[in-house]
Amino acid sequence: MDSILENLAKTEFISIFVRDPRLHKDRSWHTHVDYEIYLQTNCICFRKKTSCVRRRYSEFVWLRHRLEQNALVIDLPKLPPKNLFFSLKNTEQVMKRMKGLQDFLEIVLHTLLLLSDSRLHLFLQSELSIKNIERCAMGKTRYTVAEAIQRSSYFSGSEDPAKASCDSDCESSSSSGLGLSEETPIRSSPVPFFESHSLSP
């Protein structure tokens, strides 16, 4: 039995990519960037073998805090530091943060004890807001963790409406950001981060 488990562990893989930063603007002209998290795996710990969701920096901060509470004996990896001078116009800063977020997830996903946390799975494979992830993990929703993940429909454009109320982070700004003028109309969909640079005068 031990040899079977060892062979299984050797053939399992988890690939995670943080990519495609996108600019979001609300009706108050506050802006923030979120990132696509693409996961591909054959690990039995995951209900979906391929998934794709979008998360912002403040949600990563929440995740690390919750994992830290749940696994006190583990020294968790650091997130890229909060930068008071973070600028949406600075491509290098955005790319550096994106790499730091991916490095964080790679270490987390290769720490066996952390894979038992349902909040991690909901973060990576569902579109629930942070508030609803907490409620679902505590059994306070009409749907189970498995159902929330299975019903995730990122590619169809649906999104948990409560996610819009997520707390702001240092990426948020009252300025238009990335060179977008104040006359730029409010968009109904997020703007690809690098495409937004071409909108500058």
Description:
Helices cover 35% and strands 16% of the residues. It has helices spanning 2-11, 57-70, 91-109, 118-125, 130-137, 145-150, 193-197, and strands at residues 14-25, 31-41, 50-56, 191-192. β1 (14-25) and β2 form a beta hairpin. α4 runs antiparallel to α5 (130-137). The longest helix has 19 residues, at 91-109. The model is unreliable at 155-189 and 196-201 (pLDDT under 50).
Task: Give me the secondary-structure topology.
Layout: H1 2-11, E1 14-25, E2 31-41, E3 50-56, H2 57-70, H3 91-109, H4 118-125, H5 130-137, H6 145-150, E4 191-192, H7 193-197
Antiparallel strand pairs: 1-2, 1-4, 2-3
Helix pairs in contact: 4-5
State the distance separating the first and last CA atoms: 65 Å
Q: Class by helix and strand content?
A: alpha+beta
* Rg, Cα atoms, Å: 18 Å
Largest β-sheet summary = 4 strands, antiparallel
- H/E element order: HEEEHHHHHEH
Question: Which strand order do you get reading across the main beta sheet?
Answer: 3-2-1-4
The low-pLDDT segments are 155-189, 196-201
Mean pLDDT level: 77
Broad shape: globular
Beta fraction: 15-25%
Number of H/I helices: 7
Strand runs, count: 4
Helix content: 25-40%
Question: What key phrases describe this protein's structure?
Answer:
alpha+beta, 7 helices, 16% strand
Summarize the structure in short:
The protein has seven helices and four strands.
